[in-house]
Amino acid sequence: MLHTRRRPGNTYERWDGANVTASDVTLVT
Known about the structure:
By secondary structure, the protein is mainly beta. The protein contains no helices and three strands.
């Protein structure tokens, strides 16, 4: 499981620093 942080612009920043769209992130805690 990857830790994701919510970012402005409906984007999520993963622990590796990669930016993914909300479509790529289904589970966000």
